[in-house]
Design brief:
360 residues; alpha/beta; Isopropylmalate Dehydrogenase; 2 domains; ten-stranded mixed β-sheet; two-stranded antiparallel ribbon; 12 helices; 24% strand; globular; binds nicotinamide-adenine-dinucleotide; binds 3-isopropylmalic acid; binds manganese (II) ion
Length: 360
C-alpha cells in the first residue's frame, strides 16, 4: 500500500462543504487503489484569522511543507474584506503559494460533452474546447515592489503596485508551458501587453528565445485584450496559453465560462518538487455558502489533478474523472450547471451520487 500525507485546507465559505465531498471520494479511491491517505487539516484564510489573527499561521505552512500534497478549498468572505491587507484571507493564499514556491498554476478549461448546454455560449463555439492556461503564480503585479498606499507631497494618497518579472521567473514558467504544450496539442499562445508594458516586452522576448528549444511547438503571441476577445469569439483556436499572474487570473475565469461553470474548474499549483497545491479556480462563493448549493466537482477534479500531477497516481485520477462524467451522464446537476430536464441536487447529494458511481 502507498501512503500519502495530505494537508487539507478547507478555508472559508463553501470550502468546507466541497472539501468534505472530496475527502469521501478520496477515501473510496484509496480503498480501490490500495492507497492510504493520511489527512491532516489546517487553518488558512478567514477561519485562520478568526482563530489566530493570521491568515496563514506558521504551523499551517510547516504542515504543508511536510506533506506530499496540499488540497485547498477556497478562502475569503465579506467578514474579512475590510481588514488591513496583511490580515486578509487573500494574503494567506498568496503567502502559501509563495511559501511553497508554486510558480506554475495549471488551469485546464475543458468542456465536457454533458455540459455543452450549460455554457452561456453557443454549442458550435464551445463544443470540443480543451484549453490549458499556464498562469505564473508567484510573481508579477501580485508580488512586485514597491506596493502599498502612500501619501504624496500634496497630502493625497497614492495606491501603488508594480508589475515586474525577472528573466529567470519568465524562463521557468515558459519552460513549464512549452513542456505542457508538447504533451498536448503542441500549440502555445503567450499572452502579454507588450505593446504598452516593458515587463511584457521582456516576457515576450524570453518566451520567443525559449521557442528554439521546442521546435515541435508552434508559438504565437497575443495581447491580453485581444486574447480575452478571442477566448469568447473562437476558443477552439487555443491549446495551451501561458501568461502572467494577473492576466492568467482574469483569463482563467473567462475560460471557465466556456465550460459551463467555474464550479467545474480545477487547478494545480506546482513548484519544483513536492508538495504541489491543488485548488479549484473559483472562490469561497459567500453568496451560496452554508446552503448546500455549491458544486463540489471543481474540488473533486482538483483532487484528481493532485493524484495525476502531485502523487503520480494517474489511474486513480482517471477513475475520479470518469466518475464525474458518469454522474453528469446520470443527469445530476447543481444549480450552476442546471439545464432543463436534469436532476437538481445540492452539494451533498452530488457527492453521494459520485460515491455511489465510484463504488459500483
Ligand atoms: P467566487 O468564485 O467565490 O464566486 C463567483 C460566483 O460564482 C458566485 O456567484 C458564486 O456563487 C459562484 N460559484 C463559485 N464557485 C461555485 C461553485 N463551486 N458552485 C456554484 N457556484 C459557484 O468569486 P467572488 O465572489 O469574486 O469571490 C468571493 C470570495 O472568494 C472573495 O473573498 C475572493 O477573494 C475569494 N476568492 C478566493 C479564491 C481562492 O480561494 N482560490 C479564488 C477566487 C476568489
Ligand atoms: C484565484 C483567486 C486569487 C488570485 C485571489 C483570491 C488571491 O482569484 O485563485 O484565482 O487572484 O490568485
Ligand atoms: Mn481568480
Amino acid at each position: 500500500t502507498r501512503q500519502y500525507c495530505i494537508t487539507l485546507l478547507p478555508g472559508d465559505g463553501i470550502g468546507p462543504e466541497i472539501l468534505a465531498v472530496t475527502v469521501d471520494v478520496l477515501k473510496i479511491i484509496g480503498q480501490q487503489f490500495d492507497i492510504t491517505f493520511n489527512f491532516q487539516e489546517a487553518l488558512i484564510g478567514g477561519s485562520a484569522i478568526d482563530a489566530t489573527g493570521n491568515p496563514l499561521p506558521e504551523e499551517t505552512l510547516t504542515l504543508c511543507r511536510n506533506s506530499d500534497a496540499v488540497l485547498l478549498a477556497a478562502i475569503g468572505g465579506y467578514k474579512w474584506d475590510n481588514l488591513p491587507r496583511h490580515q486578509r484571507p487573500e494574503t494567506g493564499l498568496l503567502a502559501i503559494r509563495a511559501g511553497l514556491n508554486l510558480f506554475a498554476n495549471l488551469r485546464p478549461a475543458t468542456i465536457l460533452p454533458q455540459l455543452v448546454d450549460a455554457s452561456s455560449l453557443k454549442r458550435e463555439v464551445v463544443e470540443g474546447v480543451d484549453i490549458m492556461v499556464v498562469r505564473e503564480l508567484t510573481g508579477g503585479i501580485y508580488f512586485g515592489q514597491p506596493k502599498g498606499i502612500f501619501e504624496t507631497e500634496t497630502g493625497e494618497k497614492r495606491g501603488v503596485n508594480t508589475m515586474a518579472y525577472t528573466e529567470s521567473e519568465i524562463d521557468r514558467i515558459a519552460q513549464v508551458a512549452f513542456e505542457t504544450a508538447q504533451k498536448r496539442g503542441k500549440k502555445l499562445c503567450s499572452v502579454d501587453k507588450a505593446n504598452v508594458l516593458d515587463v511584457s516586452q521582456l516576457w515576450r522576448d524570453r518566451v520567443t528565445l525559449m521557442a528554439d528549444r521546442y521546435p515541435d511547438v508552434e508559438l504565437s503571441h497575443l495581447y491580453v485584450d485581444n486574447a480575452a476577445m478571442q477566448l469568447v469569439r473562437a476558443p477552439k483556436q487555443f491549446d495551451t496559453i501561458v501568461t502572467g499572474n494577473l492576466f492568467g487570473d482574469i483569463l482563467s475565469d473567462a475560460a471557465a465560462m466556456l465550460t459551463g461553470s467555474i464550479g467545474m474548474l480545477p487547478s494545480a499549483s506546482l513548484g519544483l518538487g513536492k508538495p504541489g497545491l491543488f485548488e479549484p479556480v473559483h472562490g469561497s462563493a459567500p453568496d451560496i455558502a452554508g446552503q448546500d448549493k455549491a458544486n463540489p466537482l471543481a474540488q473533486v477534479l482538483s483532487a484528481a489533478m493532485m493524484l495525476r500531477y502531485g502523487l503520480d497516481e494517474p489511474e486513480a485520477a482517471t477513475k475520479i474523472e470518469q466518475g464525474v462524467l458518469a454522474v453528469l451522464d446520470q443527469g445530476y446537476r447543481t444549480g450552476d450547471i442546471m439545464s432543463p430536464g436534469m436532476k437538481a441536487v445540492g452539494c451533498k447529494a452530488m457527492g453521494e451520487a459520485l460515491v455511489k458511481v465510484l463504488e459500483s
